[in-house]
């Protein structure tokens, strides 16, 4: 216990030191991979090292090369930060060291997962009897839900994937909008389904329902899965769920919704209208480490029919202690896994429904402030209708926009990244962190103004963070 206590105390001290720097440190990393390797030492030592010394060495070597992504000024990707309740609960998860696969093996986690699942369904406005699987992230949430959908539509065609595999079976047709997230394609590749058939999207990236209906009519009664989107990664736009789900179900398709960050709009009356009709789908995927701000890794796979999910993910083992209520591993691709429901429960309990609502509305409000601030800069064009938490801006030519992106990272005040959307280079801002304040937004906008001024031939100012 002496070694354990010393190591944990040192880790606690270093953690608080790290968190205290987030408001003032540059957001991009300040050291290279090569320097970290040199500091860590690339040769495995013959003799061991005291655990507290190991923790200290690790922090000294890595801290300069860390990205300040938990700070309120990281807007490069939709990844969120870590809420204090979730961070503390995640420390307990590591200390308790529970395998969350079996109900009777870990009754504490099973109880937490049951409560958190019910709360999540309530917050997200999804059917109360749905199964909730806690997976690693959005990719595996899509994979898990699409596996349930694949197997269900094949069973409907008289083909059992569990016993017969895919070879020789009917083709599964997958339809998805042109502006779907790439993780949908990745999940489909894992599932042996290949690329989806793209369906036209409008100027904000929303699937065009008439085009979807036409594509469904052109099929020949094949087993079909339709993928919809809650929160386009560039525009934040939401598909027309009411009409798209209805049309898909009229043709017997399984409907899956990729809602990595946008599904959380359901928690706010100001934004829930964007999801009208989403509860009619068959499965939904989202990330808790995005809008909800729990630590990595935690995705959520929700399937309306628990039996369909269990048919795809479940297994039996004579050596296992089975519970009549079913097992957590019946809902996910893993057997052994981390107790991911505990940090989720902790954030939900800490915030309450009103706190989640306020968090969602605050993130969207910051995105609107960004859009207004960017639009006020001469020569800047905001390209999307800012309906949730995403902002895309052009600074004129592609070359000029890309130079702004480069200079913003060099400035260090905030992390904003470049992308290409609808044939144009853009600076993309994703607001996902619970810690982002109005001051963070204004500091970031000030950095953009400095960069733009520098492009106009003025002297580049000293970096200010």
UniProtKB/TrEMBL annotation:
It comes from the Bacteria. Keywords: Aminotransferase, Decarboxylase, Lyase, Pyridoxal phosphate, Transferase. One of its GO terms (biological process) is carboxylic acid metabolic process. Gene3D superfamilies: Aspartate Aminotransferase, domain 1, Type I PLP-dependent aspartate aminotransferase-like (Major domain). The keyword Kinase does not apply. SUPFAM superfamilies: PLP-dependent transferases. The modification N6-(pyridoxal phosphate)lysine is found at residue 290. PANTHER family: GROUP II PYRIDOXAL-5-PHOSPHATE DECARBOXYLASE (PTHR11999), MIP05841P (PTHR11999:SF70). Belongs to the group II decarboxylase family. This is Aspartate aminotransferase family protein. It comes from Nocardioides iriomotensis. The lineage of its organism: Bacteria, Bacillati, Actinomycetota, Actinomycetes, Propionibacteriales.
């Amino acid at each position: 216990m002496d070694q354990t206590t010393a190591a944990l105390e040192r880790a606690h001290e270093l953690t608080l030191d790290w968190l205290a720097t987030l408001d003032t440190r540059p957001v991009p990393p300040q050291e290279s991979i090569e320097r970290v390797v040199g500091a860590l030492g690339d040769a495995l030592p013959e003799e061991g090292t005291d655990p507290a010394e190991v923790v200290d060495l690790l922090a000294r070597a890595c801290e300069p090369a860390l990205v300040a992504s938990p700070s309120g000024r990281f807007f490069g990707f939709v990844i969120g930060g870590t809420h204090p309740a979730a961070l503390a609960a995640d420390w307990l998860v590591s200390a308790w060291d529970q395998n969350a696969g079996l109900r009777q093996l870990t009754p504490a986690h099973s109880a937490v997962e049951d409560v958190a699942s019910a709360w999540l369904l309530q917050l997200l406005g999804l059917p109360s009897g749905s199964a909730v699987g806690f997976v690693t992230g959005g990719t595996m949430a899509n994979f898990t839900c699409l596996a349930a959908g694949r197997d269900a539509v094949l069973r409907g065609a008289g083909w059992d994937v569990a016993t017969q595999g895919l070879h020789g079976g009917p083709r599964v047709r997958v339809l998805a909008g042109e502006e779907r997230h790439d993780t949908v394609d990745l999940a489909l590749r894992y599932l042996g389904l290949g690329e989806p058939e793209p369906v036209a999207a409008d100027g904000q990236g929303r699937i065009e329902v008439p085009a979807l209906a036409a594509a469904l009519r052109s099929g020949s009664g094949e087993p079909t899965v339709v993928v919809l989107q809650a929160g386009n990664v560039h525009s934040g736009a939401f598909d027309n769920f009411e009409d798209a789900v209805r049309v898909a179900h009229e043709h017997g398709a399984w409907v899956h919704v990729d809602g990595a960050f946008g599904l959380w709009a359901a928690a706010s009356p100001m934004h829930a209208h964007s999801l009208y009709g989403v509860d009619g789908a068959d499965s939904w995927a989202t990330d808790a480490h995005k809008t909800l701000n729990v630590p990595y890794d935690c995705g959520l796979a929700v399937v309306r029919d628990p039996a369909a999910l269990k048919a795809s993910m479940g297994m039996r083992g004579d050596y296992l202690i089975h519970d009549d209520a079913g097992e957590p591993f019946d809902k996910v691709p893993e057997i052994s896994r981390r107790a991911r429901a505990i940090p989720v429960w902790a954030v939900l309990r800490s915030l309450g429904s009103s706190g989640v609502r306020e968090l969602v509305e605050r993130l969207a409000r910051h995105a609107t402030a960004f859009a207004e601030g960017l639009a006020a800069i001469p020569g800047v064009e905001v390209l999307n209708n800012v309906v949730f938490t995403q902002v895309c801006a052009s600074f004129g030519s592609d070359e000029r926009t890309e130079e702004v992106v480069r200079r913003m990272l060099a400035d260090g005040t905030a992390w904003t990244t470049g992308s290409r959307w609808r044939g144009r280079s853009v600076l993309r801002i994703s607001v996902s962190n619970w810690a982002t304040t109005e001051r963070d937004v204004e500091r970031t906008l000030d950095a953009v103004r400095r960069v733009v001024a520098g492009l106009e031939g003025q002297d580049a100012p000293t970096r200010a963070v």
